[in-house]
Amino acid sequence: MWKLTKVAAVAAALAAAVAAHAGEVEVLHYWTSGGEAKSAAELKKMMQAKGHTWRDFAVAGGGGDSAMTVLKSRVISGNPPSAAQVKGPAIQEWASEGVLGNMDALAKSEKWDEALPKVVADVMKYKGNYVAAPVNVHRVNWIWASSDALKKAGVAAMPKTWDEFFAAADKLKAAGLIPVAHGGQNWQDFTTFESVVLGVGGPKFYQDALVKLDDKALTSDTMKKSLETFRRIKTYTDPGAPGRDWNLATAMLIQGKAGFQLMGDWAKGEFIAAGKAPGKDFMCAAAPGTANAFTFNVDSFILFKLKDAAAQKAQSDLASAIMSPGFQEVFNLNKGSIPVRAGQSMDKFDDCAKASAKDFADTAKSGGLVPSVAHGMAIAPATEGAIKDAVSQFWNDDKVSVADAMKKIATAAKTK
Ligand code: GAL
After folding, report:
1. Is 402 helix (H, G, I), strand (E, B) or coil?
2. Residue span of the signal peptide, if any (predicted)?
3. Which of 32, 138, 139 has most ligand 1 atoms within 8 Å of CB, for mutation?
4. Nearest residue by C-alpha to atom 2 in ligand 1
5. ∠ CA 244-137-23 to the nearest 5 degrees?
């Protein structure tokens, strides 16, 4: 009996210790599709295991445009969440407003500088101080395929070039299938567009045109060819594409109704959540012409300045959980991405993820590693928005000529 009392006393003391530090984390994110929600749930579980309360601030909408609008209004009203899913140059913009906390003490004690590739660590810092924590590396330049659809259409292999892609698309069409599953937001159009630019022009051209926004590159013959290829892809999409969410486009592959989808590897999270296996039910390959390149998209959470001590502790525990090898593994197994920590084991990951990890390392050396513009990794948000609109206008309106689109994109690139 005395033993039980002792155990109970220890448990009570432990609970009190947890309670003394227990706080609430309110986390803004836009992970609401099947695979995304499963991934976000892992973070929630970890925070609850540490005794904290998780307040879910999910704003639906792939790519996060709606989430960013909601976040702005919350911060302007002086009531920021603990953390928000923000990435790339937008991290710097938020930090320059003076609303983010300094996570250096935690980063130092957990050796984040050693754990992260420098290109990633630099993006997480503002004026040398950590203000954000990264969760993963998504690769954007993928093409996904439904094995059933390819089989029905007699397509034997994943297309390596755009010519092979169009030949396969013709076969899918002839078999009565939808060759390309596409959705209806400007970030989906641009996800396809940047893979086309990368495949047609290569990494150096991609950098010049879409990252450096060099006028000469933007109005070059290579850009003309990219736009022509991009427009040709549209002829293989179905009339239901406008307005469709990206995960519903992935569902068309899962159901065997469509052949291909050009999408980042969060699409793999959808296949996995639906119980499908890579290499069997669905296929992954680098987008045509992009085998030696890698468009990276690093999801991360910015951490806001908080006043309450318990909330600060919960926030620090959140950042620590995000960076832990255990979380990086389980989260990314669900999300379709790969861990961002250097030297993390890939044993439990599938072949698509293993290929991604290898290509991430190889392209970092070869110069083929480039930031995704579609996913907010490369240029200032205002410029990105303007270019995306110009590209989507071209995609949506067949009356806009290639020459006009080039002019519009070049003008949009000057938006500050
Ligand atoms: C990306 C984001 C991914 C995924 C996708 C669709 O921008 O980095 O994590 O959620 O949008 O929402």
Report:
1. helix
2. 1-22
3. 138
4. 63
5. 90
Task: Name the segment(s) of the chain with CATH classification 3.40.190.10.
Answer: 6-139+297-354, 142-296+366-412
Which ligand 1 atom is at minimum distance from the Cα of 247? 6
Domain 142-296+366-412 = CATH 3.40.190.10: yes
Q: Residue 306, Cβ neighbours under 10 Å: how many? A: 21
Q: 277: CA distance to ligand 1 center in Å?
A: 21
CA of 187 to the centre of ligand 1 (A): 10
Amino acid 244 reads R
- What three-state secondary structure class fits 20? helix
For 266-315, the pLDDT digits (tens) are 999 999 999 999 999 999 999 999 999 999 999 999 999 999 999 999 99
Given a contact cutoff of 8 angstroms between Cβ atoms, the answer to whether 380 and 96 are in contact is: no
Residues in contact with ligand 1 (CB, 6 Å cut-off): 30-31, 36, 62-64, 138, 246, 266, 297, 299, 375
Q: Please answer whether residues 52 and 106 qualify as being in contact, where contact means their C-beta atoms are separated by less than 8 angstroms.
A: no
Ligand 1 centre distance from Cα of residue 17 (Å):
37
pTM, rounded to two decimals: 0.94
How high does pLDDT run on average in the chain?
A: 95
Residue 168: what residue type?
Answer: A
Q: How far is the CA of 60 from the centre of ligand 1 (A)?
A: 11
Are 392 and 188 spatial neighbours (Cβ–Cβ below 8 Å)?
no
29 - beta bridge partners?
A: 58
Distances (CA, A) of 145 to 91, 244, 336, 359: 34, 18, 15, 20
